[in-house]
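Reviewers of the previous submission asked for a worked example of the structure-prediction workflow described in the proposal, so we include one complete record here. The input consisted solely of the amino acid sequence. No template or homolog information was supplied to the procedure at any stage.
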Amino acid sequence: MTLKIAIDADAADAPYEQLRTQISEQARSGALPVGYRLPTVRGLAEDLGLAANTVAKAYRALEADGVIETRGRNGTFVAAAGDAAERELAAAARVFADRARRLGRTQDAALSAVRDALRAVYGG
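From that input alone, the workflow returned the following structure tokens.
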């Protein structure tokens, strides 16, 4: 297994977001198995021609999402993120649903708002 990252300087997404997305997708698909040791921040930055702060920002976001975990001097590893990510998504959906109900919106109106937000984020 090797980490495969391609940063497109002309892409609309910032390099850290491209990096975060690609690592997240590879971890969630199993291309990077749980326990896979990621390169150091400095090492990956050098390999990709990015600033170390850019890689560090992506790693922080991935850790906050539960995709990776840092084990001090031992390094950074792919975490068993599926369950944690699913729980967080369900919790966020519940918060949204509760808020929509308090605002007096119908289920159809809430679903429409979610679809609009997803289109804005994912495109299409």
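The radius of gyration is 17 Å. We consider this example representative of the routine output the project will generate in years two and three.
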